[in-house]
Specification:
D-amino Acid Aminotransferase, Chain A, domain 1; Rossmann fold; 10 helices; 27% strand; binds adenosine-5'-diphosphate; binds magnesium ion
Length: 376
């Protein structure tokens, strides 16, 4: 570790430079030992770093992209290390010990997959998406690893041994992240072809989606058309890199960041909770609370179909076009309503998916504790 020459960045007193990679530097923050400052570099690389150029403005575009993507993931309830952006080229994250694996998800076959599996045509669609893992090892060109190799490596990070449970959680989480972002990009008529993410373990032993997710992390084809690609592949494909080529790459990255800014769709749906009388309020407030947890807008109304049928029908007419469903438990009511809205709102869809995933993680944890607790 080297003592940083920078001491204060965006009001944060920096400690040691923990690590420096191809595209960013990671610093300790003196006031917050569980957090780090991640500073992006104006540098673009490909081929495990064999090809590299200075690309002025890239650090800012990358920070903007990563921040927006992680804000989406955080907002739907996925656990990530991202905390907040602090200036144009830096953000704060939970300090992690990183799992040295690249978790790749593919919807369409392209790139290295075609070289590894001759005969598969470009654009072959994987349903469900294909998942692959690569050991982060530039010197050996990031070899593909089977899950047995990851488990056998016995990584121990912040006290957590990466065993089968942890690999299962990371694999499912990788798919969740892909599907959430695929839906988000589909709303902009963009095909998320494939992407890679990394995980870290924080000081509490939590598995978090970590590192960055930016134009270096995925292939994006507007309207599903490879010729319109907006990702780093444009740079990878260049044999002789001119200033004008670099400018094209930068404009593409900028376009991606801007598209992300306009991603969130307006939530148009509304869950109307009709109460027969004010005495139903306590029960109906529970439904309202469950809706709120899913970020689904809701509204309570008092109307009795028995005592004032016409009035109830008038209220229904106000909300015409919304489906109706009969359920008993408050959380089931909220989830049923959210499922209807999820058909047209990808963020609600993502929250429901994340809820199911987080339940899966809780069960895995409980199972591990039961398994490893000796008989009293
Ligand atoms: N939240 C975090 N806590 C600690 N280290 C991190 C965090 N996020 C990313 N890193 C690490 O920062 C290092 C620098 O990133 P990068 O420049 O992309 O390196 P590389 O060239 O190894 O991919 C990587 O080793 C990455 O794993
Ligand atoms: Mg990296």
């Amino acid at each position: 570790m080297t003592r940083s020459s920078l001491s204060i960045v965006a009001g944060y007193a920096l400690g040691n430079l923990i690590t420096e990679g191809k595209t960013k530097k990671v610093y300790e923050i003196l006031q917050s030992p569980d957090e780090v400052l991640i500073i992006s570099k104006d540098r673009i690389t490909a081929g495990d770093g064999t090809k590299a150029h200075v690309l002025e403005g890239k650090a800012a575009i990358s920070t903007q992209t990563t921040s927006k993507v992680f804000e989406i993931l955080n907002s739907v309830g996925i656990k990530t290390s991202f905390i907040k952006v602090v200036n144009e080229t830096a953000f704060i994250a939970r300090k992690c010990e990183m799992v040295p694996i690249e978790w790749v998800t593919r919807r369409l076959a392209t790139g290295s997959f075609l070289r590894r599996y001759p005969g598969v045509p470009e654009g072959y669609k994987f349903n469900p998406p294909l998942q692959e893992t690569f050991f982060k090892d530039d010197a050996n060109h990031d070899p593909q690893w089977a899950q047995e190799q990851i488990i056998s490596a016995g990584f121990n990070l912040n006290g957590v041994t990466i065993a089968k449970d942890e690999v299962d959680i990371m694999r499912r989480c990788t798919l969740l992240v892909f599907e959430v972002l695929e839906k988000a990009w589909a709303s902009q008529d963009c095909c998320l072809v494939d992407m890679k993410i990394e995980f870290g373990i924080d000081s509490k032993g939590e598995i978090l989606v970590s590192d960055v997710i930016d134009s270096d992390s995925w292939r994006l084809w507007p309207s599903g058309d490879k010729k319109l690609m907006k990702d780093k592949q444009v740079y990878r494909n260049l044999s002789n890199v001119t200033l004008s080529d670099l400018d094209t790459v930068k404009r593409n990255f900028k376009w991606v960041a801007e598209q992300l800014e306009s991603l969130t769709p307006p939530t148009t749906g509304l869950v109307v909770i009709l109460m027969g009388s004010p005495s139903d309020e306590e029960h109906c407030r529970k439904i309202e609370k469950e809706c709120h947890k899913l970020n689904v807008p809701s509204q309570l109304r008092v109307t009795s179909a028995h005592k004032g049928t016409e009035d109830t029908l008038n209220i229904l007419a106000e909300y015409e076009g919304l489906g109706c469903t009969t359920v008993i438990h408050p959380s089931a009511a909220a989830i049923a309503a959210a499922q209807i809205l999820a058909l047209s709102d990808h963020l609600i869809w993502s929250r429901l998916r994340t809820l199911a995933f987080n339940n899966y993680v809780s069960l895995k944890r409980a199972d591990k504790i039961i398994r490893t607790t000796p008989m009293q």
